[in-house]
Design brief:
By secondary structure, the chain is of the alpha/beta class. About 35% of the residues lie in helices and about 20% in strands. It has one domain: Vaccinia Virus protein VP39 (Rossmann fold, 3-Layer(aba) Sandwich), CATH 3.40.50.150. Helix 2 runs antiparallel to helix 4 and helix 6 packs across helix 7. The radius of gyration is 16 Å and the shape is globular.
């Protein structure tokens, strides 16, 4: 599994980090019996469907030590997985109390409190500026940009895993937003893409 993680993350993964990811898996599986954090049909393929799928975003961070915000973090996917693999600070944004409580519990159990902040709020109410913005299965791209642009600077990179709808979402968002965009193949799903966006601004704004 270390080889698979290292391959998708684009960096060596230590045995200690693998053990931390396995500990997160145990925490997630335990909580899944109390609330619907991930689809029950994907629990048997948790590593490929969720952990490796999240880990591949690490290879796309703009620079070592970059700050991240994960909007609609839910089960901590991709945010907690990324936090275990990078050196920069991660902010997990989750409006639902039970899920935010789970995230706080997971962060404490994994001893990530010095590098991970959990914010129970809607994205629109969050303050700050981040180097990297991500979110998994939160909203169509047009809506997601509306939720997140106030958290960006001119150098921020959006790293957004998308399914087959990536290109159509990008085209739809293009009617309201202008940006530099790149569509990268997913390393875990041949039908999925990862959208990389920079210099995002509403159309008509200089």
């Amino acid at each position: 599994m270390i080889e698979a993680l290292s391959a998708v993350a684009g960096k060596p993964v230590s045995r200690e980090t693998l053990n931390s990811l396995r500990a997160y898996e145990d925490i997630l599986r335990s909580e899944a019996g109390r609330q619907n954090l991930v689809s029950a049909t994907t629990l048997d393929s948790l590593w490929t469907r969720h952990i490796l799928d999240s880990a591949q975003l690490v290879a796309l961070e703009p620079a070592p030590g970059a700050s991240w915000v994960d909007i609609g973090s839910g089960a901590g996917l991709p945010g907690i997985v990324i936090a275990l693999l990078v050196d920069g600070h991660m902010t997990l944004v989750e409006p639902r109390r039970l899920r935010a409580d789970f995230l706080k519990h997971a962060v404490a159990e994994l001893r990530l409190g010095d590098r991970v902040t959990v914010v129970q709020a809607k994205a629109q109410g969050v303050a700050g500026r981040f180097d990297t913005i991500t979110g998994r299965a939160v909203a169509p791209l047009d809506q997601f940009l509306s939720l997140s642009t106030h958290l960006s600077t001119k150098n921020t990179r959006w790293v957004l895993p998308k399914g087959r709808s990536a290109e159509s979402e990008l085209a739809e968002a293009g009617t309201r937003w202008q940006c530099e965009a790149e569509s990268v193949p997913s390393r875990t799903d041949p039908d999925a893409r990862i959208l990389l966006l920079r210099n995002v601004k509403p159309r008509g704004r200089a």
